[in-house]
Amino acid sequence: MFNNHSRRQFLQLAGGLLVATSATVSFPRFRTLAADKSKPILRFQFTIEGGGKGSFYLNTATAPIAVQGAFGQEFLYFNAVSNFSFSGLDRNLKKQTAGWKVVPGLKAEFLGGFPPGTPGVLSGVNYPDGCSTGTANACSITVAVLYLGNLAELPQLSTDPSSYYLIGVDLIQPNGQLNRIDATERKVIALPEGVIVD
Question: What is this structure's pTM?
Answer without folding.
Answer: 0.79
